[in-house]
Design goal:
190 residues, mainly alpha, two-stranded antiparallel ribbon, 2 strands, 60% helix, 4% strand
Length: 190
């Protein structure tokens, strides 16, 4: 209900600005993880993106980097661990955090310490207000998926499979290795 109310009373351009602001706050973690994954060129481009959006984009409220060709990326420590060869482990659903895996859940701690909000001198009420707004905004953006979940035969399995597929897509930067029927049969025979 909170997300529905937020979406109803907040104009679209303001929601876009809020989304841009929170996406910009994630960029220090994205940049560091790109360097840890060996993506130095992308890391440098995203450093420029972060600096442009933070300064000319007024703390990231306006996305001035995309129109000049600096596309957005999203990397986290869970992806870095995957690139380093750490297996995902079992799928988990964490209260308040949502879908994850045994590899990705603890990696959120690393990313948490890269959040610039942890190093600002603002009252705790304002900091937690921003965190709550981020959660409400994220949920409001996902409201359009609710009808799809209502039609799913098994919503848990649908979310699990969709999340794991999306995660693999993110880890391999949109080009996951192809799976063949021969590989599936070989795994079943072993």
């Amino acid at each position: 209900p909170t997300a529905k109310g937020y979406k109803k009373i907040t104009p679209g351009f303001i929601r876009t600005g809020i989304g841009n602001f929170f996406a910009n706050l994630d960029y220090p973690a994205t940049i560091l993880n790109q360097f840890l994954q060996g993506k130095a060129v992308t890391g440098l481009k995203d450093t420029g993106r972060f600096l442009l959006n933070t300064t000319l984009g007024v703390a990231g409220i306006f996305d001035v980097a995309t129109p000049i060709g600096l596309q957005a990326h999203d990397e986290d420590f869970g992806q870095t661990l995957a690139v380093w060869g750490v297996n995902s482990g079992p799928y988990l659903t964490l209260p308040l955090f949502g879908p994850s895996t045994l590899r990705d859940a603890p990696s959120r701690i690393f990313d948490f310490f890269l959040d610039p909000l942890n190093y600002t001198e603002i009252p705790w009420e304002a900091e937690w207000g921003q965190r709550v707004l981020d959660v409400v905004h994220t949920r409001a953006e996902l409201l359009t998926l609710d009808p799809t979940l209502e039609r799913a035969f098994d919503p848990y399995a649908f979310i699990r499979d969709a999340w794991l597929q999306r995660r693999e897509f993110e880890i391999f930067d949109g080009a996951p290795p192809p799976e063949t029927l021969d590989e599936e049969f070989l795994e079943e025979d072993e």
